[in-house]
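Self-study notes.
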Amino acid sequence: MLFVLFWSTGFIVARAVAPHADVQFFLLWRFVAAASFWAVAAILAKGRWPAPRKFVQHLGVGAMMMGLYLSLSFLAIAHGLPAGIMALLGALQPLFTAALMLARGRASPSVSTWWGLLIGFFGVILVLLPRLRGSHVELAGYANVAGLLAIAALTLGTLAQRRVAGEDLSIASCVQNLGAMSVAGLAFVVVGAARWDGSVVLWGSLVWSVLVTSVLAQGLLMWMMRRSDATHVTALLLLVPPVAASFAYLVFHETLTWLQLTGFALALAGVVLARRVAT
């Protein structure tokens, strides 16, 4: 529950930051701050740092799961992709995860898992349907491609997370944020700009994104991925768009219809069904 609440605020932060700073510049500072936080935590915990090969693997996972995912997501929103569409694309991630695991023969999702994912995704569509009707974005558009690539990066990074598990969580988080920082730095050099107006909203968004999204939400995701099946964990992401829509109502006064509330209920039911252990 905490993971869904914290992770859902990412779309609110992206929307709040765009008018005040270059999104890649913002992400670069976010990853620098998050890596510094985890470095201090790792030093205090006196954990054992990984060998060079494992260190590089953690860098790659962080670059994929956080760096590419967030850089492409923020870039898509900054270039006109509605936050609702980005949230809907994010709801595809559990289906991508289950499909990849099935294709690789790692684990066959149960029938209840597939039905839960499909029901949950249908609920997400109902939540976002008003936004979908009001948007006229071509499927071949630049922002849409960036959004799809972002979800692909999140899917691959999430699956790779289990393969590099073993180190202390603070150490793994520090190294992975360094990997994400390298991607954000490259994106800033290529497409970014040093735009930062120093407003209260911007600084507040940075503090929130570091402590709540990068530390708490991503820490919870890594912790759960080490202790549960990837399909069951990523099924929780189906709840993100409905919760994000609720936050948008509270923060930006966007209305919620009965259709959207019905979709939220379906998404919740789908997650419960998808997380059931097959008997």
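Second protein, same conventions, sequence then structure:
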Amino acid sequence: MIRVSQQYIWSVVFSVFFLILVIMGAIILDTETRIEWVDLTMVDYLIMLLASWRLTRLFVYDNITRFVREQFKDVVKVGRGYRLETPKSGPRRLLSELFDCPWCTSIWTSTIVVFLYLLTEYAVFPFVLLGLSAVVSFLQISTNLVGHSVERAKQQSDML
């Protein structure tokens, strides 16, 4: 027996909306593209990849966009303070879950990046900046991991 909940309905609604946007984007790109798929180079794909990764990270994790994510949360009073929680149901719950899931958000950000990259040359500069930021983020995270590993190894050797 299939259990249908209100959340499943919202998931279908957003999936259909996404599909319509993709179809409309493909129709627009069919006549208005600045660069054809066959003319894309590895550099173009790398720029789009890194820009999509950085946009995803920006909307899912970064503090600067926390205000966007918080719009889809419920404020719950806890003791003398407040806590943000995912709503129990409705479209806000779906959007809250979307912004909590990097894999889910990456589908949307990648679609936007590819569409704008193929549509207008004005998108190249911000996407190159996002791509460079992605590389810097990756290097920073890697450096932090190496630093923590060295520090942990030093603490363990000091214990011996």
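Instructor comment on the second fold: The chain is about 70% helix and 5% strand.
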